[in-house]
Amino acid sequence: MSEAAVSETESGLPLVSVVIVLYNSSEHIGPCLESVASLDYCPVEVVLVDNGSRDDSVMVARRKAAESGLACLVSELPRNVGYAGAVNNGASLASGDVLLLLNPDTEVYPDMVSALVEALSDRTVGVAGCKVYNPDGVTLQHTGGYVRDNGLTMHYGVGERDEGQFDEARDVFYVTGAALAVGRGTFAEAGAFDAGYYPAYFEETDLCLRVRRMGYRVVYVPGARVLHHESVTTGRFTKRYYYLYHRNRVRFLLKNFSWRFLRDRALAMERRWLGMIDISFEGKPLRKAYVLNALMLPRTLLARWAVERALRAPRIEDTVSEL
After folding, report:
1. Pairing state of beta strands 153-155 and 72-77?
2. DSSP secondary structure of 191-260
3. If residue 27 lies in a helix (H) or strand (E), which one and from where to where?
């Protein structure tokens, strides 16, 4: 599991810390914790981070954890610090050598953690991701991901019925943060999540790219299965979603790619893509995202400089150009 040694418990297996960020998640956290309690893997600890919820997420989570017999540590943040900041808080409290990041609207299969731990036992692997289903348990949502030249994140297999066509493990550009496993040492070595991707989107894509630049692999693990009730907090395909997504997409590009790449490939694809979208709906949040990135450019350049100084490794620009 990268260069960080994994200490074994009495069972001979590494402790897995399941980090779940709550944000008005009372509707979904119960089934999520029930599924974690059904895991066939031991030892597991649960770290819950409440990100300034306005509902009874913490009360529901505490009750369900107690009913399910889960050892549970709860961190209650006074305000919403964004998904990345909340995960970093949870990771700092975790005791395990493996961090399993789960969205509260997920439900895991019993053998999910075993498959992820096995994948991470290969010291060339830095991050391991899951086969993610829609709530029907049949339609695929994610089997690893790739990135277009203009930063658009794409999911392999999305919308397809699972008929075994994605049952081979493979290296990918990134895996979704809805269900992502990483060694705690690797997470720290990579600099944790970048809280600049506030409040959400692209923090896992950015982490996966940094881990790959460090020389480790990011792998899709088909045996690690999970259901995901997607985007219950920010909403899917709303104007707010488009604004947050595009704001962080542009920041991801500016932070991680060479100026030549941005000029010759990212900008060219962005122009082509703009001719394909519904500008009457997506145009306003997109323009707002462009303006915000222009205003925040000094901070983004500082983050870009910090990454280059910390990693001292060649950039990876293996994006996909076709639309």
Report:
1. unpaired
2. TS--TTS-SSSSHHHHHHHHHHHTT-EEEEEEEEEEEE-TTTTT-SSSHHHHHHHHHHHHHHHHHHS-HH
3. helix 26-37
CB burial class (10 A; 0-12, 13-18, 19+) of residue 20?
buried
Burial track 140-177 (b if 16+ CB lie within 10 A, e otherwise): bbbbbbebbbbbbbebbbeeeebeeebeebeebbbbbb
Residue type, 190: A
- pLDDT surpasses 60 at 121: yes
- pTM (predicted TM-score): 0.94
Of the candidates 313, 301, 308, 309, which has an alpha carbon nearest to the alpha carbon of residue 126? 313
pLDDT in tens, 128-156: 999 999 999 999 999 999 999 999 999 99
Give the class (CATH, top level) of 16-228: alpha beta
What is the DSSP-derived secondary structure letter of residue 262?
Answer: I
- Domain assignments of the chain as residue spans, ordered by start: 16-228, 239-311
